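[Help] Beginner question about ligand-bound structures

Sorry if this is basic. My supervisor gave me a protein sequence and a SMILES string for S-adenosylmethionine and asked me to "get the holo structure". I don't really know what that means in practice or what format the answer should be in. Inputs are pasted below exactly as I got them.
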Amino acid sequence: MPNKSHFNSGHRAINQLRKGGALHSSTITGVQASYTVHGIFIQDAVEFLKTLPDSSVQLILIDPPYNIDLDAWDSFHNYLDWAKEWLDQIYRVLSDSGNCVIFGGFQYQDLKKGDLLEILHYTRHETALRFVNLIIWYYKNGMSAHRFFANRHEEAVWLSKTKRYYFDLDSVRVPFDEATKKIYKKDKRLNPESIEKGKNPTNVWEIGRLNGNSTERVGHLTQKPAELIRRFVKALSFEGSIVLDFFAGSGTTGRVCIEERRHSLLVDSDSQLYSYLDKHIEQIESDLFLPKYRLMKSSSIHTVLDEIAFVNQQAQCDPILEEHSNE
Ligand SMILES: C[S@@+](CC[C@H](N)C(=O)[O-])C[C@H]1O[C@@H](n2cnc3c(N)ncnc32)[C@H](O)[C@@H]1O
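Answer (accepted):
No worries, everyone starts somewhere. Holo just means with the ligand present. The predicted complex, written as structure tokens, is below.
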């Protein structure tokens, strides 16, 4: 009987890369720097992007405005024309193993509004970015509706720069409970190691939205739950790599990056980002195991990137490449 793994597209891709002399990007292991660096920039997103060197970022994670008049920052005359300005920069600034996650929704009925479908259409037809996954963020708490079915999800598109994007599925697997593990372990067809690792979280993620009285709230109107951001940060970037959020809002991405030992670049046109981020940090400071970090609030992008390069180099520098066993 043929080995089933011969039909597994992941295995086939790794074999092909081996034959071609290249390593799969999932073989990258990170850098344990003695501290992580977090640059905070109060600046327009597009202006900031223009200052970033090519191929400098591992993960772009953004939750953009959608022109639904939530606040002064959420109103545009021509949404797509504006969105194209930052969408056009993404491919250039991502590294070859890089990923991009864009949050949004499909539920806006007025054509003037922006929506994720239009963004996806543009990236597919007008940029070299590759579509990897659509993730459905499902939550049980939300507004009621009478003229349509009440909305209980938002989406995020995951795009990559190349086929060799970084993806660490093991870091975000969902553990099986003990009873299920016991049953599965009796099944000789299942690999005990895989049972221990847990299951693929799939592309539908049930994570509660932050209620008005949630203790995680820091005051920003559209703050995302840290748990949601964490899954992307862990799976699509590695320790010591750079995560960019150019619609940082309250700085949830920065908070998660501090906790997960990634460097971050946080950009928002609103200077309240400073105080929101301070509140996020107050929440995590009591954690005994909080990794060391350095905030850089009024430095140029080049100073911040130099500092990241320095601290990564100190930790014996570049990401170590190791070949995974393919068996
Ligand atoms: C949806 S919120 C992001 C919330 C964030 N995910 C969080 O968890 O806190 C979008 C943010 O984009 C910022 N923004 C809007 N237009 C911008 C621009 N042109 N450049 C930079 N930031 C901008 C707004 O100030 C707002 O804080």
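A couple of things worth pointing out: The CA atoms of residues 52 and 93 lie 7 Å apart. The radius of gyration is 21 Å. Feel free to follow up in the thread.
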